[in-house]
Amino acid sequence: EDQVTQSPEALRLQEGESSSLNCSYTVSGLRGLFWYRQDPGKGPEFLFTLYSAGEEKEKERLKATLTKKESFLHITAPKPEDSATYLCALRSNFNKFYFGSGTKLNVKP
Amino acid sequence: GAVVSQHPSWVICKSGTSVKIECRSLDFQATTMFWYRQFPKQSLMLMATSNEGSKATYEQGVEKDKFLINHASLTLSTLTVTSAHPEDSSFYICSARRSGADSGANVLTFGAGSRLTVL
Predict the structure, then answer these.
(1) Minimal CA–CA distance to B32: which of B114, B112, B104, B94?
(2) Which of B46, B103, B113 sits opposite A43 (nearest CB)?
(3) Does B110 sit within 8 Å of A43, measured CB to CB?
(4) How many other C-beta atoms can be found within 10 angstroms of the C-beta atom of residue B83?
(5) Residues 73-102, chain B, touching A (beta carbon < 8 A)
């Protein structure tokens, strides 16, 4: 059964305090692992797509990595504007996208 | 970039009435659109996959007669919540996947969501 699990559920950081969010997955055939950012009351905003183990993508203070079982979203020196819920999703062989429960990040100044 | 417009952004209706939510891909064609439901502080739950010109595929446990989905063109999908009840109150989000075989076609672009409140 295709499954996505994210941890931690919530994360509070001080501005400048780097950390990582985890996304563990099981899938019959991975056709992409996606990271999205969602602000309250809005639709998710695309961040990264990773396709194969060892792949890395970067954007400003965010860096996403992928292994055969999990993906990490590393946040370096976060700022308050990075506060949001970060969602991990995978696309399966059946062309469906499954989302994890998300990690709510709160960065305090 | 790919833009998906969802309308209305919020709606309040009386119990027993029907509500239609529109999802449009503004600058690309989308053969496949997805409808999600999101409860407070929870993640997105896939309700159905909408394919242009054919019947939608519903996830297990989703009532197809209550949540009518129509994908009449490559840029428009609609979700109609029929005979709405308070338990249908939720945040509904659509997403579209751009047609094509390139890597960009893998990405889901989301609408801003529609908050439905049924009184």
Answers:
(1) B94
(2) B113
(3) yes
(4) 12
(5) 91, 93, 95
Give B-chain residues touching A44 at CB under 8 angstroms: 44, 93, 95, 110
**Residue pLDDT tens, chain B, 119 long:** 788 999 999 999 999 999 999 999 998 888 889 999 998 878 899 999 988 888 899 999 999 999 999 988 889 999 999 999 999 999 999 999 876 666 666 788 999 999 999 99
Identify the closest residue of chain B to A31 by CA–CA distance. B106
For residue A47, what are its two tokens?
Answer: 């961040």
Q: A87 near A35, Cβ under 8 Å?
A: yes
Give the whole-angstrom CA distance, residue A5 versus residue A98: 10
Please judge whether A43 and B95 are an interchain contact, meaning their C-beta atoms are less than 8 angstroms apart. yes
Helix count and strand count (H, E) for chain B: 0, 11
